[in-house]
Amino acid sequence: MRERDYILSKQNDSDGPETIYIQNKNSIITFDNAVQIKTSHSFRKPSQIYKVGDKIIKRYKDGEDDYVRFQKEVFDILKKSNLPAFMKLRDVYTEDVQLFVDDDFKEMITAYSYDYIETINKKMIDLPMEYTLSSMCELKKLVEFLNNNNVLIGDSSAANCLVTEDNLVVIDPDYFEINDKCEEENLKEINHYISDLWCEEYGLNSMDDIRLISKQFYDKNIDLYLYKMNMRLTEETPREFITKTLQKNRRI
Ligand SMILES: Nc1ncnc2c1ncn2[C@@H]1O[C@H](COP(=O)(O)OP(=O)(O)OP(=O)(O)O)[C@@H](O)[C@H]1O
Ligand SMILES: [Mg+2]
After folding, report:
1. Other Cβ atoms within 10 Å of 62 Cβ, number
2. 31-65 pLDDT tens trace
3. Does 160 lie in the same domain as 235?
4. Mutate which of 7, 39, 78, 196 to test ligand 1's pocket (most atoms within 8 Å of Cβ)?
5. Are 90 and 200 in the same domain?
6. Of 7, 34, 88, 229, which one is least surrounded by beta carbons within 10 A?
7. How many CB atoms are closer than 10 A to CB 1?
8. What's the pTM?
């Protein structure tokens, strides 16, 4: 079972809805009927993820103030994105935290919410190649938005890119950061979402396998893909190249 499926099925055997509390400035906000879908023990940003109605709330664990967290200024930019390839951010909750390094206070995110994303239980390889290509078109719009706003993608991986009926949707921007030299890097990152999803579904699990495919994606055709995305989909699409590469590396 893939991580994503596990998390979603875990939702059904959870202990049931609970009330959660979120720090916002100097008050506490309460949400009833929150169903926990995940606890992350990640060292840098331990968090809990809840489904509350049609929203997801990601809450950082208490007492982790010195850890790196999703930056408020990055949240504010991303909230304006309004693109199919990116999660729809809603509310943000913050507190002023005194930083250990320089004693200054900084507004830090304690939690944020976004629209629940309906995923489909299909693998990339089972979807038509047009799905990959149209997803890339949408991802390209995301890259343009991020580049215009100097936001660099961080933590691109299959787990942070959900497969929906219409296209891939990027989630988990916790490691996105302001960086004025992100243009080339962001292109690689969106290709990484795609190549990682393809690798995952081909059961490629050694780093060498993944590198092999990434290399093909990065070195050979990155510009070509993006160029073709501006064009109508024809026989010239990289379908053959992608299929061949993946078949060659398939483990049965
Ligand atoms: N809106 C959503 N709709 C459906 N599933 C979601 C949604 N948001 C999160 N998930 C599920 O929760 C998982 C974890 O979310 P996220 O990537 O934000 O947490 P995380 O901090 O990366 O946790 P970890 O580092 O432990 O993976 C996702 O991979 C996805 O399967
Ligand atoms: Mg994640």
Report:
1. 10
2. 999 999 987 776 667 889 999 999 999 998 865 55
3. yes
4. 7
5. no
6. 7
7. 8
8. 0.78
